[in-house]
Amino acid sequence: MIFLVLSGAALPENLKEIRAYKKHIGGAELRADFLADPGGEDWPGFFQALGELPLILTLRKPEDGGRFCESEDRRRELFLSLLEKGNFRYIDLEGGVDFPDVEEAARAKGVRIIRSFHDFTGVPEDLTGRVRSLVRKPGDIPKAAVMPKSCRDFARLIDAFRDLQDVTKILLGMGQFGFAARVLAPRLGSWLTFASPAGDALAPGLIDPRTLDTVYRYHSQSPATRVFGIIGSPILHSKSPHIHNPGYTKLGIDGVYVPFHVDRVEDFLPVVRKLNIEGFSVTVPFKEEIPGFCAHTEDAVRGTGACNTVKPREDGLYGYNTDVEGFLAPLRAAFPAGLSGLRAAVIGAGGAARSAVYALAREGARVLVVNRTAHRARRLCGDIQKALGLCEERVRWVRPGEQGLALIEEYAQLIVNSTTMGMSPWEDLDPLAARAFRGTETVYDMVYSPRETLFLKRALAAGCAVIYGEQMLMSQAYRQFYVYTGKELDPSAAYDL
Ligand code: NAP
Question: Would the CB of 377 count as within 6 Å of ligand 1?
Fold first, then answer.
């Protein structure tokens, strides 16, 4: 179940939010510590409008992430008076709190008690024991919200889920490392998870109910759901869940694809086993490190030195580089006669450039790498020449500036931006501002956010054919989808980016 956290300063505000998310939620948590004047609210009207929606009553203190700053006596009184006001289904009392009269009043009205504890500093060593000890009377629901600070912490949280399978509980991971546990709550066995459009402002890692339901397929998850994902740091901004998850829906696959914030690859590998992750994508900064953990790698991984796709199999991890084919897919459509002999300039010499230069050179193009940092460009060209057995003439480099601009003219059939210039938040940067387009070039921007960069806008205005980074993103994801599931996504389908 998804419970919407109500953090409005007044009840009408909370009702508005409930109406907006009604079809995605199974209940709500009223954070009464956010109400400006609980005594002055229209409670009968609120409960009437709420109907049968289950409601948790919570009055959180600052040390537990809340706003209630008055005395414990005042908190006890407020709990008692709010219980009188209407039909709460649950009340959240922290594990250490002793309010016998509140408990008695709650039990007399059939209100179930959630016994909670919060740890904003990490994952306690004895999490399983702590959760079990929260239950005071039969029917109490233990709740723990913990903050994993590393992949190791996250792995311990997964262990707690395994060890507490026999307990009806609410178990939450907060923050970037805990995000996957929030999203995987039904798969892991948390009785509910919390969600709010207020996001991090309310609790670290909180996600809005619509995204949780529609992107992360919350209501179709079960303990049998297959898990896929993407690793990186940072990773929560990734668009990949928005491509893979709708693909599972479309093809009727019981799967979910989630972002895993990772600090050390070696600490993520136990998580792969514990969750039986059937495939994971790899992004910055792990693409070049991950091949070292793979038992098998395809040519494109060895050629580029980078891997963005991992499939765990019985005899180890298999590493793929789908960026190479993803980069080529729109080019094959743009140059149906093939790329052999094409003269292409690639601006940039980072990870994305490696895939682009390898792909172009392998297909027979002549490539000029243009990069401000000479040693990076030199190393990239040397690596690709060696991997493909090519002479220096086929893959060469130059620094930007006058000489660079002059040389680009010899390679201007295709101009590729593989730098981060133009990418949000650097939207006002243009990787080739000093050169005007003639209209004869095909211009390819690997940047996909924003969709249309300044660089592409200029190219379009000059009459050039353009290729969007989004086209590459989709193509590389389709191949990943096939590697993970053995099923093909329809390339013409429009997925929500
Ligand atoms: P990266 O490894 O950090 O490389 C960044 C490159 O940009 C470097 O060559 C760097 O030059 C250059 N650069 C950055 N700021 C610059 C500036 N102000 N002036 C001149 N050069 C600058 O990044 P990456 O992983 O290659 O990613 C690059 C872009 O490709 C990102 O926008 C990423 O989202 C996109 N990408 C898209 C796809 C897709 O599917 N469409 C796939 C992969 C990547 P120096 O070497 O001189 O520092």
Answer: no
